[in-house]
Design goal:
The chain is α/β, with parallel strands linked by helices. 51% of the residues lie in helices and 13% in strands. It folds into two domains: 200 residues, D-Maltodextrin-Binding Protein, domain 2 (3-Layer(aba) Sandwich); 203 residues, D-Maltodextrin-Binding Protein, domain 2. Bound molecules: beta-D-glucopyranose. Beta-D-glucopyranose binds next to loops.
């Protein structure tokens, strides 16, 4: 589906989804964009958990990675006074709905369950609004990863790229061997998500913070940002001819099948490897994007909890409790590719990439190198994030011709969105 079709489908879905007056009170209605194989498998863990407790599930899926189609559908539902019990949301979107007075109050559940102590403060900045818990964090994803086919790596005799130049050399080897070097999904959110890593790698963590978290204009139009666009253009030259419009999970499938060497993507990609019964070390490799080792550019899926009538609160509280229970946090995240949204969940059941993800998060949190992904809703509010995405994707698809022009457009677009 094209983005326009998805938006259209999302809007249709929003108008079709009307909560009947006699709706089951012991039911959770959930809007989400988890429609790939790995994502659906992860969501099933939650459905099964709630079913065991006697709660029904009304699924409101809106396809489209990164969630922009889902958020358009949600907006329409909320405007129609027809919001679900809960919706998957990213960072600043939670705060927007909370500021608009749309969210419920889960503080009593949070206190009883010890969320204040267990959930990392970086996440609480987005799940707590004016001292009230308004969302339940489900996980922590991070975007600065490489997902590599082990069979292609063996074929070309490659090793872990430690620097951006190493990565380019590795991509060249794949090209020489006749394999598509970079499995790219050519959709705006995917290109922007990749650019987060490229900027971190090109300029370092402090530069990323200044440019994207502080919106320091000198950094946004600096020679370093230009270099980051140059590096993005280098990566573009390693995609196959059919990358435009490709869904992220189809790009992951290219790596899973050994048709491409590497995908640069958040660790939801690992959910696809897991669903295909692939093992890290044997079938695929996970490395941090070269030059970003020690830094974690994160996002967290949150279940935003809307204000619901009194008779529906029991189901909402059950959903919230299940989401942040230690056992669910392990079972779900093992399948999803993310890591727990609590600091006290053992890594025992996680594979090698999951264990690395948990250790990296802990380490980055302690060192001050845990940064919000701007592409994924944790760097800036939606309008600014959209302006960023727009410039990156126009550059990637050649509508902005040079890195010089790209930085000029970036500053202009961000200022207009402020
Ligand atoms: C979400 C992930 C999801 C990915 C692709 C991201 O925005 O955080 O949970 O798997 O989009 O759909």
């Amino acid at each position: 589906m094209t983005t326009t079709m998805k938006l259209f489908a999302g809007a249709l879905l929003a108008s079709a989804f009307a909560m009947p007056a006699h709706a089951q009170v012991k039911e959770v209605q959930m809007l989400h964009w988890w429609t790939s194989g790995g994502e659906a498998a992860a969501l099933n863990v939650l459905k099964a958990d709630l079913a065991k407790q006697g709660f029904g599930w009304k699924d409101v899926p809106v396809a489209g990675g990164g969630g922009s189609a889902a958020m358009t559908a949600l907006k329409a539902m909320v405007a129609a006074g027809n919001h679900p019990t809960s919706s998957q949301m990213l960072g600043y979107t939670v705060l927007d709905y909370a500021a608009a007075g749309k969210m419920g109050d889960l503080t009593a559940t949070a206190k009883a369950e010890g969320w204040d102590e267990a959930v990392p403060k970086a996440l609480q900045k987005f799940s707590v609004h004016n001292g009230k818990w308004v969302a339940a964090p489900v996980n922590v994803h991070s975007v600065n990863w490489l997902w590599i086919s082990k069979s292609v790596m063996d074929k070309i005799g490659g090793t872990e790229p430690k620097t951006f130049d190493d990565l380019i050399a590795l991509l060249d080897k794949a090209k020489a061997a006749g394999v598509t070097p970079l499995a790219q999904g050519g959709q705006p959110w995917q290109e922007a998500t990749m650019f987060d890593s490229v900027v971190l790698s090109t300029g370092g963590t402090d530069f990323y913070k200044k440019a994207f978290l502080d919106l320091d204009e000198a950094s946004l139009k600096s020679a370093t940002m230009k270099k980051a666009f140059d590096n993005l253009a280098k990566l573009r030259s390693y995609t196959d001819a059919n990358y435009a419009g490709r869904d992220w999970n189809l790009a992951t499938a290219m790596v899973i099948k050994g048709d491409a060497l590497v995908q640069v993507m958040g660790d939801w990609a690992k959910g696809e490897f897991v669903a295909a019964k692939k093992t890290p070390g044997t079938d695929f490799l996970c490395f941090r994007f070269p030059g970003t080792q020690g830094t974690v550019a994160y996002n967290s899926d949150m279940f935003g909890m809307f204000k619901v009538p009194a008779d529906r609160q029991e189901a909402q509280v059950a959903l919230a409790k299940a989401t942040l229970s230690k056992s669910f946090q392990s079972a779900f995240n093992v399948v999803k590719g993310s890591v727990p949204a609590r600091t006290d969940v053992p890594d025992t059941d996680f594979d090698a990439c999951g264990k690395k993800g948990i250790a990296d998060l802990k380490d980055a949190n302690a060192k001050g190198t845990l940064v919000g992904s701007i592409a994924q809703g944790y760097g800036q509010p939606p309008a600014i994030a959209a302006a960023y995405t727009d410039v990156v994707t126009k550059f990637f698809h050649g509508q902005i011709a040079t890195s010089d022009a790209a930085v000029t457009e970036l500053v202009k677009a961000i200022n207009a969105a402020k």
